[in-house]
Amino acid sequence: MTIEVRNLVKSFGSFKALDGVDLKVDSGELVALLGPSGSGKTTLLRIVAGLDWPDSGEVFINGEDALAQGARERHVGFVFQHYALFRHMTVFENVAFGLRVQPRAVRKDEAAIRIRVKELLDLVQLDWLADRYPSQLSGGQRQRIALARALAIEPRILLLDEPFGALDAKVRKELRKWLRSLHHEIHVTSIFVTHDQEEALEVANRVVVMDKGRIEQIGSPDDVYESPASAFVHGFIGESIELPVQVEGGAVRLDGRPLALAADGLAPGASKLFVRRHDMLVGPPGSGAFEGAVRHVRNFGPVQRAEVTLSGGKTIEIDAPRDKELRVGDTIGLEPRRYRIFAG
Amino acid sequence: MSAVAARRRTLPGFGLTMGLTLTWLSVIILIPLAGLFLKSLELSPEQFWNILSSRRTLNALRVSFGLAFAAACVNLVMGSIIVWALVRYRFPGRRLFDAIVDVPFALPTAVAGVALTALFAEKGWLGAPLAALGLKVAFTPVGIFVAMIFIGIPFVVRTVQPVLQDLDPEIEEAAGSLGASRWQTIFRVILPSLAPALLTGLALAFARAVGEYGSVIFIAGNLPNVSEIAPLLIVIRLSEFRYADATAIAVVMLVVSFVIIFAVNRLQRWAQSRIPAR
């Protein structure tokens, strides 16, 4: 099943939630919509599900015009951030709900419903909770039940709205792996919304980065991390050092002083220089494009994080290997191994 | 509970609050009710039975309980719809309507009775068109029914409102995306979630209507055996100095009301147990 949206526009009052969004999702893909809050990712998901309606634009599910149908007819599985389980029903009845409300003509009989629910509970590995009520489950269990409930109707596509957003960090990591393997198993075309870049990069086949109602970049997790298409993407994904620079006369200038960086093909004017923290290589004073004084050093897992005040006065944070000797007060040279300059 | 656990309670005062509760409930409720039972003991069982089985008493009880139950049911349905509109939609005047719901709480019941009577009398604004249709409201049992609806509505609205406010609209969206129709969503998801509150509202509206006196006597016409409510019959017996008769009727009202409210309470507890606290 494919999903295609064309030129979607949606405003809430004066706030533009979606500002001309085009997206194609191929059959069997697991796509992440990644962006800060207010970027329009949830609105996009809800429009695909039929829970919201666009001001203009088109939505096709498997080539059919989805906007001609309500949420009920679209046959879309939707998983909510806060689970939205029916609290007066047992886990079993929650999962069975989608099967029980089918029109009489196509409804399965009780025995078939029991078998199907059992299958789904096995799939999410929670068959032992069938008789409990949602309030008696942990957050992670609730979300797995919500997923089983959404899958019960054999949805054409599966949409997940910040599925792990309300869970604690450890459970979130487990469920991420689990979701990826589940998708591998059932292969239903899926879109999930997240503001957590790690989650998007780890789980998805393809990542769609959104900001202010527009799509900034679509690409594989490697693409968006290694070759960000815009200043926003570079700043949002991975930890970056961001420096305001001036491109003029074939040179890149920071605080008026030229840097030893190539300015080929760059448009003149105010620009932003982006370097990943771990791409700043530390050398002796005088080596590299920057020079600065170490202010503060802290060990941080496999790296040491140093606060360095550059000679122009700006302070940046870099990540250096633990074996590199850095002392507070040292003057060091810094050479960006890789960097990107974006106009604006 | 072990002594250690008792000492570790954050808030002291189980003894104090429990003592106050029992004393207060005794002084305010239990002792007056016990007095009622004592007074009725002046009657022999045979006299007691004769008073109760008299046609006038039975009819008064039937009118009171029957109409109160019917009014409570109407309030349940209409109250639910009002709650739905007030909670789920934003419209101009919403706060005003929300405030109007409380008017029957605050209005002196006699004022309500006079107002309803004037409105539904044969020449009244609503009474005239209804009379043209052949329906006489004021000075008939229908009038009692109307007054009981009037005084009961806030009980349903105010008990159900906070529970519906607490009910996440996302569960309706979830039901819709799982293929449920609007009706299926209402009957399988929303109403069951509200069931405990609905039952409580029903019980309160019923209890209020059974005990209502002030607004009803103005509109009822108070025709013995037809539109005479039990509380009025009690007052009549008191004015005739037949105190034992009055207490006998009161005792029956008390017992029947208690049984009904207790049953609804159990039903509500049962419904609640299916929705454990979050």
Shape of chain B: globular
Q: Number of DSSP strands of chain B?
A: 0
Largest sheet of chain B: none
Mean pLDDT of chain B: 88
- Count the E strands of chain A: 20
**Residues in β-strands, percent of chain B:** under 5%
Give the count of helical stretches of chain B.
Answer: 14
State the separation between the terminal residues of chain B, measured CA to CA: 26 Å
Shape of chain A: elongated
Extract low-pLDDT stretches of chain B. none
Helix content of chain B: over 70%
Residue share in helix of chain A: 25-40%
Distance between the termini of chain A: 39 Å
Poorly predicted spans of chain A:
none
Query: What is the mean predicted local confidence, pLDDT of chain A?
Result: 89
In what range is the share of β-strand residues of chain A?
Answer: 35-45%
Count interface residues per chain for the largest interface.
A-B, 31 and 23 residues
What value does the Rg of chain A take, in angstroms?
Answer: 25 Å
